[in-house]
């Protein structure tokens, strides 16, 4: 009986506490219709953005010193879709925005490189 109880405790701890919830979506699955109550943010540099970007994307450079400040006017309950070149900067931006209290931030995995590769 004790062994079964210990097994159940370990199972609950392993499945419940160790999983980290991060919202992500392959960038190829993103559709413009998702922007009805959301915003799309390209976190690459202005130079990268100027060389090509997704339609309706706003450019907020991850490397800007005031990156967080640029989101002050955004509703924290609004969905924010983020992308960058390959997914690294957008993952960091996602963590930052979640730490600031944004409740629905989605990292578009694969980044703009994946978009270019599929075209």
UniProtKB/TrEMBL annotation:
Which superkingdom does the taxonomy of this entry point to?
Bacteria
What are the alphabetically sorted keywords of the record? Transferase
Segment forming the signal sequence: none
Q: Where is the Rhodanese domain?
A: 34-119
- GO MF term (any one): transferase activity
The record ties this protein, via PROSITE patterns, to: RHODANESE_3
Q: InterPro entries of this UniProt entry?
A: Rhodanese-like_dom, Rhodanese-like_dom_sf, Thiosulfate_ST/Rhodanese-like
Which CDD domains does UniProt cross-reference here?
RHOD
PANTHER family per the UniProt record, alphabetical: RHODANESE-LIKE DOMAIN-CONTAINING PROTEIN 15, CHLOROPLASTIC
Return the protein name.
Rhodanese-related sulfurtransferase
Q: Which organism is it from?
A: Arenibacter echinorum
Query: What is the phylogenetic placement of the source species in the record?
Result: Bacteria, Pseudomonadati, Bacteroidota, Flavobacteriia, Flavobacteriales
């Amino acid at each position: 009986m004790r062994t079964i109880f210990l097994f159940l405790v370990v199972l609950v701890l392993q499945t419940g506490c160790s999983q980290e919830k991060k919202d992500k979506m392959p960038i190829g699955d993103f559709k413009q219709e998702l922007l009805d109550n959301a915003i799309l943010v390209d976190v690459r540099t202005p130079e990268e953005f100027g060389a090509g970007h997704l339609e309706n994307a706003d450019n907020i450079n991850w490397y800007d010193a005031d990156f967080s400040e640029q989101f002050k006017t955004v509703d924290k309950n609004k969905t924010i879709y983020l992308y960058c070149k390959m997914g690294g900067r957008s993952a960091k931006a996602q963590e930052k925005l979640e730490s600031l209290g944004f409740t629905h931030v989605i990292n578009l995995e694969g980044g703009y490189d994946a978009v270019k590769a599929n075209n």
